[in-house]
Amino acid sequence: MSGGFHLLGRSDTETLSLRPRQVSEPEINLIPFIDVLLVILIFLVLTTTYSQNLQLRINLPVAQAEKNQASHPPLQITVTANGDYGLQGKLIAEHTAAALSEALLAHLRGDSQAVLIISADALSSHQSVITAVDAARMAGIGHITFALQAREGAPRR
């Protein structure tokens, strides 16, 4: 043995290098990244549907609300919380759809374009409102609307 250290498994001709190893810098290969981006771009171009706005010629109807309201004043049915019915402010004695329908027919006087407004109390039963709608159907009224009251402080749209 010569004077020096021997490392196990190394011969005498191999020496221990105490110099720091050269660390290679990590390198990012951009070519595969660019290839993937091109494939994605081609996919998006091929799958994108280009919107073609079809132009249709449409003649919209003209509203004539002023004429209809002047010649046909709306009828108003009031439904109270306990199920009483009122027509144009007059109380109807019976609470049946047939009696309400007869009263509506008396007020219509052959007017086929009449509009009916149903004003129901918030505490009235659902059946009372349905009875009023059924009476309107029996009288031949096709235009029915419901009166609503906005809550105080509720935002208006």
The main pleated sheet reads as: 5 strands, mixed
Corresponding CATH architecture of the domain at 72-146: 2-Layer Sandwich
Strand numbers in spatial order across the main sheet: 3-2-1-4-5
What gyration radius follows from the Cα positions, in whole Å?
44 Å
> Helix count?
4
Number of strands: 5
Given this structure, which CATH class of the domain at 72-146 is correct?
Alpha Beta
- SSE-based structural type: alpha/beta
Give the rounded overall mean pLDDT.
77
Question: Any idea of the CATH topology of the domain at 72-146?
Answer: Nucleotidyltransferase, domain 5
Question: Which term fits the overall shape?
Answer: elongated
Q: Beta-strand level of the residues, as a percent range?
A: 5-15%
Description:
The chain has 157 residues and is of the alpha/beta class. It has a domain at 72-146: Nucleotidyltransferase, domain 5 (2-Layer Sandwich). It has 4 helices and 5 strands; from the N terminus they run ααβββαβαβ. The longest helix is centred in the first third of the chain and has 18 residues, at 30-47. The radius of gyration is 44 Å and the shape is elongated.
